[in-house]
Amino acid sequence: MAERDIHIRTCHLCEAMCGLELHVEDGEVKLTRANRDDVWSKGYLCPKGTTLGHLHTDPDRLRVPLIRNAAGEHVEATWDEAFARAEALMSGVIAKHGKEAVTLYIGNPAAHNYSISRYTGLMMGLADLPGPIYSAGTVDQWPKNVTCWTMYGHPWRIPAPDLPNTDFIVVQGANPHASQGSLLACPDVLGELDKVSERGKVVVIDPRRTGTVKHADQWLSIYPGTDAALQLAVVQVLFEEGLVDLGHLSDKLRNVDVVERVARDFTPERVAATCGVTAAEIRTLAREFAAADRACWYARIGTCNQEFGTLASWLPDVINALTGNLDSEGGLMWGKPIAWSGTLAPRDQPIEFGKFHSRVRGAPEIMGQFPVSCMAEEIATPGEGQLKALVTVAGNPVISAPDSQKLDEALPMLDCMIAIDNALNETTRHADVILPGLSPLEQPHYDELLWSWAVRSAGKWSPVLFEPEDGRPEEWEVMIRVGAMMAGIPQEHVDIKAIDDGFFSAFVQKGGADPEVALAACPEPGPERLNDNAIRTGPWGDQYGKNPDGLTLQHFKDEPNGIDMGPMVSRIDEIICHPDGKVDLAPEYVIADLPRLEERIDRENDGLLLVSRRHVRSNNSWMHNVKVLVKGKDRCTLLIHPDDAAASGVTDGSVARVSSTAGEIEVPVEVSDEMMPGVVSLPHGWGHDKPGTRMSIAREHAGVNNNLLAPGTFVDVPSGNAAVNGIPVEVVPA
After folding, report:
1. What average pLDDT does the structure give for the chain?
2. What are the helix (H) ranges across 559-633?
3. pTM (2 decimals)?
């Protein structure tokens, strides 16, 4: 029997960043265990993290490029053939329609990939597209970026809860039981919540009694889309009862008086019926939060992708600030990454939204993007500016985009579609060329952005485990070539090293170092030198020799279990980018949406509302081809409260027809009192029944796509983020 080698690695799948032991024999991962010596996760591991070996050996994973032939079939091609075909199609579109006809879609996995996370900016910069791009960001987090830009002067300086040190935490619209953490990097979030409960209190606000509620002291069921109304009522109580205590923030905030004024009419008694939470419960919550020594209000995806996502993302930060729990131990704080991300570099551009509008719907641009649901109509509607070419990077919007049927029907209308992706999935089946990336184990890893909202300043490096085949380009090289295609640069004129040297030099300058010194220290192109520079010029870096005892990437290579530089610290003065150095507690752009919320309070709760959900063994659509994660009980069911099931005429185990203004689906019913009355739930990321895909395991567990029910025009107005929670639906027997 061959001897097994043990390799230390970090799971790249989510913010938990768990440390792994991969037991390898004969070139295959035979066993995955938690790494108890990992300085960050200390032996914690969720079910998804055990599957990296499965992802690597998945027979459906693409290893060579695919080209669509004249018969519409995808056939294998060499890299030269694939690049040539992609260039011919792209150059044809640009010659005939201009670069205005070209766009880009960036998917969620890009944030978790060593190359793509660091090279998306270069690809977009090279392409220099005159119009907007599209991304998964306008489905799950754009409100948070909007509020951080207006409050703090930077869209990506997002605070996170100091979970290990808080005594009282409100978890609103988040389910770390399934997600571990979102815009929150902390290993074993549920274990930390248990500790908070032992020393204080955990309150979960959610329409569903999620797995996280089992680790809470109180569950407040709330009607979808009314989170901001409840939050404003809490603010009103804080002012009315003299519970506001700015503490160390007294000279760091502006427009506190404006917050008091706009919250004045949102009393608990006024919003209670709308929210489904009693006035007494709201008042008690406000009082207990204000009384706690160290408290934190954490709101996440359920508060982002709803009708009032921006307001519901703004107000948690306001509540933390009004009680002195912003930038304070145990409150909402900013991570201090060892290696800074280019996304977090200082910005001084004016805060401006709606610089231009979409051609068909007239949707305003928000941070360079339109709602992802606009993409279908921009492809399908003839006229000047019609989209003719699309590049997708690690995304599956036919599953993840609202009104997804329209996008599925529109993609074949394109003259050119290029996908950088490892799967022939529901979206890439429409591509003319698919350029596969490497498996996670064929590339190194050091998370770029996730440490920005981590509860400790740590870092971990994972080396390549399995060498890719000779001659196979890495994703960053593919992205440079595709970016050049979108720019109209002929492939024979693309000098990969020269382009990357220029990109690296600009990145180095952002960090305040000398490009010549940095280039001499790391002459080889690629993401590794970006990683090294971000460490060297970070808060504990060696500054290219100026601080001889400082850190470099080599230190992490020498410490496979990682390096930890300590817990969160107060750093508000480093974070704020407004000229006066203060937090704008009541940005005009945000509070301008309050009249819309006023109208919602006056609207009766009538009929059923649909919300989405995720399972601990699922990670959007991109983990559904792993057999060990999808086997067992069918999880793609409609959760419905017993009272609503009886009223709708459906029973447990039967099949229901669920319809909205966007479409209808048929799905098995699961009757459960974990749903509050008036609200039903479907998981997202399913619907793997499309022809032409090569995801055999996912097809066996196809499920239904809840985005067929999501109207594309139902958005949070200030951010353009999709409202995929709180969709009015009708449920009847199939």
Report:
1. 95
2. 572-575, 588-591, 594-601, 627-630
3. 0.96
